[in-house]
């Protein structure tokens, strides 16, 4: 796997010839060797159509391609970095949380509203994620950013995990994602517990949760 | 003061998940937590806001009057609930009948069996920018505090009083008297102060929790 953690907030990526890596634009801290950084106008893979898709879906984060021979240090905004290794499965993550990822991974945009109908749309608004999310699929590694460290919670059938939408970072595996509300008359009169909305994740997989309710 | 045998048994189990996340295992019992601090849970949980810190009408009025407002929710259920607050470090405190004094903003979660209240702190509060009152937690059970950076626990004995920067103070337990002391002199007045013009002096027997970060206080400016 090409990523090694330097400390909790900096990740080192090994770049070998013939291999491409994508990273958030401006996230390079230092590099050794001969490495070229090219802004990716299309914002990732898949050509112009994918670019339009991402623009429409508001999942277009400025990315750059990193190529050459050497090692690069990535970090951004003092946020904690978590490396997720994928072996054939899919990671669902917000585009602005992506620090860097292997070019071997297939990047896609997914309409989250299709999971859960109207509630799916409400969920996007509540969690500030919008209606779309970015998917990464295949074999490779991803460096994801989070505010204040990440914990991993396993999801198994019959043991659902509920996550505060603001603390949700990413998830992987075959997971259904549903917004549940616990809104009663208390919320309506302004006496809510502050936990009116939760993301209920069920199925088989892992969810990544940050130790903070702050967005990036 | 031991908890009476007929009171609610404290079975909620507090543990740290990393240094910034508190995991609480619940089996049908309740804990009180800072409003909105849940980040994830599994199992079945219900969240209910407790007006005035769950101290009844009198507690509510006291908190309003003293400005020591605490937004608390009651969490009840079966499973594991995870709490975190703005990526602050979490510290666990186990109480065996003694009293913990803590700022309401630093209190993350308490066992349902613990009683909370407000107390007058004197002049110290004003220098911390926290008001004249502080929150007390009393009883037997566990409580979780949050601090900006990992808190250190300093022991105070009668021979060794401790002086703490008001902006770095988090909480204390034990039989401690606190005095407010100032090192204001002519240098401070001409704007050449060291930024350490005010301290709290703790005397007696107990523990003080200090964070490696300073809140913005009046004392820090002079």
CATH-derived architecture of chain B: 4-Layer Sandwich
Tally of separate helices of chain A: 3
CATH architecture of chain A: 4-Layer Sandwich
- Sheet with the most strands, sense and barrel status of chain A: 13 strands, antiparallel
For the termini of chain A, the CA-CA separation is 26 Å
Order of helices and strands of chain A: EEEEHEEEEHEEEEHE
Give the overall silhouette of chain B.
elongated
CATH class of chain A: Alpha Beta
Give a brief rundown of this model:
The complex is a heterodimer of chains A (216) and B (222). Chain A is mainly beta and 216 residues long.
Give your account of this protein's structure.
The complex is a heterodimer of chains A (216) and B (222). Chain A is mainly beta and 216 residues long. Chain A has helices at 47-57, 117-127, 185-188, and strands spanning 3-5, 11-15, 21-24, 28-40, 63-74, 80-93, 98-102, 106-111, 132-146, 150-155, 161-163, 168-181, 197-210. Chain A has a single domain, classed as 4-Layer Sandwich (Double-stranded beta-helix). In chain A, strands 1, 2, 3, 4, 5, 6, 7, 8, 9, 10, 11, 12 and 13 form a 13-stranded antiparallel sheet that branches. Chain A is elongated. Chain B is mainly beta and 222 residues long. Chain B has one domain: Mitochondrial biogenesis AIM24 (Double-stranded beta-helix). Chain B is built from four helices and twelve strands. The longest helix of chain B has 11 residues, at 56-66. Chain B is elongated. The termini of chain B are far apart. Mean pLDDT of chain B is 81; it is low at 1-8. Chain A binds chain B through residues 147-149, 151, 153, 159-164, 167, 182, 186, 191-195, 198, 207, 209-214, and chain B through 17-21, 35-43, 45-49, 51, 71, 73-74, 82, 84-87. β11 (161-163) of chain A pairs antiparallel with β3 of chain B, so a sheet runs across the interface.
């Amino acid at each position: 796997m090409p990523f090694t953690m330097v400390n909790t907030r900096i990740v080192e990526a090994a770049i070998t010839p013939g291999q491409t890596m994508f990273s958030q634009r401006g996230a390079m801290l230092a590099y050794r060797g001969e490495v070229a950084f090219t802004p990716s106008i299309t914002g990732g893979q898949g050509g112009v159509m994918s670019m339009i898709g991402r623009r429409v879906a508001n999942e277009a984060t400025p990315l750059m391609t990193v190529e050459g021979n050497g090692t690069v240090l990535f970090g951004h905004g003092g946020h904690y970095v978590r490396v997720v290794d994928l072996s054939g499965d899919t990671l669902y993550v917000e585009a602005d949380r992506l620090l860097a990822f292997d070019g071997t991974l297939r990047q896609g945009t997914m309409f989250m509203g299709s999971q859960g109908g109207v509630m799916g749309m409400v969920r996007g608004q509540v969690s500030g994620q919008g209606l779309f999310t970015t998917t990464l699929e295949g074999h490779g590694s991803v460096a994801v950013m989070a505010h204040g460290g990440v914990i991993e919670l396993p999801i198994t059938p019959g043991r659902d995990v509920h996550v505060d939408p603001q603390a949700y970072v990413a998830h992987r595996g075959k997971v259904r994602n549903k917004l549940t509300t616990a809104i009663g008359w208390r919320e309506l009169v302004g006496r809510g517990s502050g936990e009116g909305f939760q993301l209920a994740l069920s199925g088989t997989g892992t969810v990544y949760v940050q130790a903070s309710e702050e967005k990036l | 003061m031991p908890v009476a045998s007929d009171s609610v048994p404290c079975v909620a189990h507090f543990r740290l998940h990393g240094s910034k996340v508190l995991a609480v295992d619940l089996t049908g019992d309740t804990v009180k937590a800072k409003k909105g601090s849940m980040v994830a849970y599994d199992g079945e949980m219900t969240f209910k806001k407790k007006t005035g810190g769950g101290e009844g009408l009198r507690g509510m009025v006291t908190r309003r009057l003293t400005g020591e407002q605490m937004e608390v929710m009651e969490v009840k259920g079966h499973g594991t609930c995870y709490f975190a607050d703005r990526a602050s470090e979490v510290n666990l405190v186990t109480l065996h009948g003694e009293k913990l004094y803590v700022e309401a903003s630093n209190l993350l979660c308490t066992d349902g069996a613990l009683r909370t209240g407000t107390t007058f702190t004197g002049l110290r509060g004003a220098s911390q920018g926290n008001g004249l009152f502080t929150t007390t937690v009393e009883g037997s059970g566990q409580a979780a505090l949050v601090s900006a950076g990992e808190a250190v626990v300093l022991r105070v004995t009668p021979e060794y009083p401790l002086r703490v920067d008001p902006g770095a103070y988090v909480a204390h337990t034990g039989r401690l008297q606190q005095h407010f002391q100032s090192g204001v002199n002519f240098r401070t007045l001409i704007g050449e102060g060291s930024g350490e013009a005010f301290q709290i002096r703790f005397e007696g027997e107990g523990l003080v929790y200090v964070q490696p970060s300073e809140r913005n206080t009046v004392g820090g400016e002079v």
